[in-house]
Design a protein that fits this description.
The protein has 15 helices and 9 strands. The chain is an alpha/beta fold. It binds adenosine-5'-diphosphate. The site of adenosine-5'-diphosphate (ADP) has 20 residues, from helix 2, helix 4 and helix 10.
Length: about 350
């Protein structure tokens, strides 16, 4: 989990600890492809790949999953392993800190197993290079001897499936990207799909939830299942204390007001980001480094966690000279639209 993702864990839910988050992630995680909601095209394609691999009695081809945190990359990794009837081994780019660690992992896997590498764009160059022969020929180099007698021998490993996950596909090197048989880019979820996810999760929590409540919660979840599930837990608290335990649109409204999540799903941090661009930099363009410094946030967090949804919803734009705030950002904040920059295409 990247620094950005960790940061994301605490948004809008003060005091939520990571352990709790992981427990709920597991509880809510669908186990089979048929239970994975939305992302229809990807789901159908994955279904075909699984069927074909099983028919040929071969491991699944290596698959790269891209997209912002919380959209279901890890969930899909688990599902693929389950559908193939194999074991899933989980690690992350930064956790494999030297070639030996990779070799250790590889030699422990059984035929067809899934190796899930989160944040795969953060692999070090030597580890990444060691991964190439493993992915292509199912071979790894093992060091023998020490000092002047050090040598390496090539060892066969069991054919396996690498499922790589990344929030930043653009940072992947070309040789690594090319070694994946398929790349799936997960999109933010439409509100209807998120509402289905909310209803499913509410059922798992054994909380009554009316359809209007689910829809209103979904609309404030930034197109992200993890955000929807987290918000659901907070709404459940308010439903228990201030209502009769049922999740309704009124209770969602009360909870979101208290958490300062607005009707577009933006929280205090999102609004601060828009305000900084508008008030301090005349609507932009402002470079991402400058913006990160102004917000006292790491650049990675800004780019991985905050920006994708604001970009996708059109609140901000990316130009060669930096980020700009678009008209809807001004309107959303109730400010007059008079930017320093000219909107592309308007003039
Ligand atoms: P990522 O790895 O992309 O950060 P996860 O796979 O950990 O995201 O998903 C975050 C949470 O959202 C998990 O609890 C998961 O069960 C839930 N989730 C994600 N996608 C879906 C989906 N399509 N249907 C149902 N639940 C989902």
């Amino acid at each position: 989990m990247s620094q950005g993702e960790q940061k994301n864990e605490t948004r809008a839910v003060e005091g939520d600890v990571q352990i709790g988050e992981e427990r709920f992630d597991r509880l809510f995680r669908p186990e089979r492809l048929k239970d994975f909601i939305g992302q229809q095209r990807h789901k159908e394609n994955l279904g075909v790949y699984v069927k074909a691999a099983k028919k040929r009695k071969e491991p699944l081809d290596h698959i790269l999953l891209c997209g912002p945190p919380g959209l279901g990359k890890t969930t899909l990794g688990h599902i693929l392993a389950k559908e193939m009837g194999v074991q899933m081994h989980m690690t992350s780019g930064p956790a494999i800190d030297h070639k030996g660690a990779l070799t250790g992992l590889m030699t422990r896997m059984s035929r067809g197993d899934v190796l899930f590498i989160d944040e795969i764009h953060r692999l070090s160059a030597p580890v990444e290079e060691a991964l190439y022969p493993a992915m292509e020929d199912f071979r790894v180099d093992v060091m023998t001897g020490e000092g002047a007698y050090a040598d390496s021998i090539s060892v066969d490993i069991q054919p396996f499936t690498l499922v790589g996950a990344t929030t930043r596909a653009g940072l992947l090197t070309k040789p690594l990207h090319e070694r994946f048989g398929a790349t799936l880019r997960l999109d933010f979820y439409p509100t209807d799909d998120l509402a289905k996810i909310v209803l499913r999760s509410a059922k798992l929590l054994e909380v009554p939830c009316d359809p209007a409540g689910a829809l209103s919660l979904a609309g404030r979840s930034r197109g992200t299942p993890r955000v929807a599930n987290r918000l659901l837990r907070r709404v459940r608290d308010f439903a228990d204390v201030q209502g009769d335990g049922t999740i309704t649109s009124e209770i969602v409204q009360v909870t979101c007001d208290r958490l300062e999540v607005d009707e577009r799903g933006l929280d205090e941090m999102d609004r601060r980001l828009l305000k900084v661009i508008i008030e301090h930099y005349g609507g932009g363009p402002v470079g991402v480094e400058t913006l990160a410094a102004a917000l006292a946030e790491p650049r990675d967090t800004l780019e991985d966690v905050y920006e994708p949804y604001l970009l996708q919803q059109g609140f901000i734009g990316r130009t060669p000279r930096g980020r700009i705030a678009n008209q809807i950002a001004y309107e959303h904040l109730g400010m007059r639209y008079e930017p320093k920059h000219k909107q592309p295409g308007l003039f």
